[in-house]
Amino acid sequence: DQIRKLIHEDTTYQVPAKVVQPVRVVPQEAPPSAWEAAPPPTEAPASLAPQPASGVVVSYLPGLPGQSYKPALAAFMTVYYENEKKAVSHTEEVSRLTPLGGSVIPVDWTNQLDLALDLEDLESTPPGGARFQDLPAEAKLKTSFTAWQRAVVDLVWRDSVIDLREHKKLGLVSEMDESERDFIARVKMAAREVRDEEIDQLEAKYEKKRLAIEEKMAKAEERIDRVKDQAKDAKIQSAISFGAAALGAVLGKSLVTQSTVYKGATAAKSASRATKSASNIGRAEESAERVEQQFKLLEADMQRDMEAISDRYEAAAEAIVTTKIKPLKRDVVVNAFVLAWLPES
Prior knowledge:
The protein contains five helices and eight strands; from the N terminus they run ααββββαββααββ.
């Protein structure tokens, strides 16, 4: 009976009650309004531009969303003008813009678009919703872009020239920003300086000749004085000789002696010397006159040469010519060469 009682107690085992966990109530926020629930507006997706050959730089000129774009080629270059002989060193920034496609010849650099465009104006992405025209088939080839770039360099090189004013004799070339009036004034000033220098050299050359003539003149005058002194002495000696001869003849009571004859001959010789001395004076004076004439001719020649120099440099402005400075082809440097998409107006 005790065993049955224990079995009965086991079979009446009750399952313990399930423990219920407390429910945590989370307060809910009020539902958003229709304006707050709407997603933010998104930009219209941009169309993809036709792709050129690999490695070609593509840029876009900003326009309006949804605007149609046409292709063009843009080249941005620096042109270096260097001429050491003429002391010219100048650089210019040059840009060229031409349509790409639209004709039998896809690129014609002589057909320039009338648009002032800087490299900074271009962007790397197009505006949203942009529509693009097709590219010509040549744009798919890298060699086409190489040829187009070479063509624009050749065109810019042929067209690049600087006109400057030059005075070749003075070795003067106008500055880039120098007006014609200022350059003429500079030429005239330089001409006066060179003229004064040449006149100084001319005077130095004629001074040597003048000194030589003055030396001849001094010698001629000295010779005249000497000849005159000799003539004076000859006259005195002649008078004395004639006087002695006459006195001897009188004292000798008309007796012709050897001494008297000798004295007469001496007197005759003295008279001859006096006449010769007078003739020498004439020749010396003629020589002096010739030297003086040389001096006058020298002064006239110098004056004529000085006036010629002055006249030549007075008209210096008339010798100004126009000289052209061109760059070497290697001095046309491409800074950027891009396929530029431009909005159609």
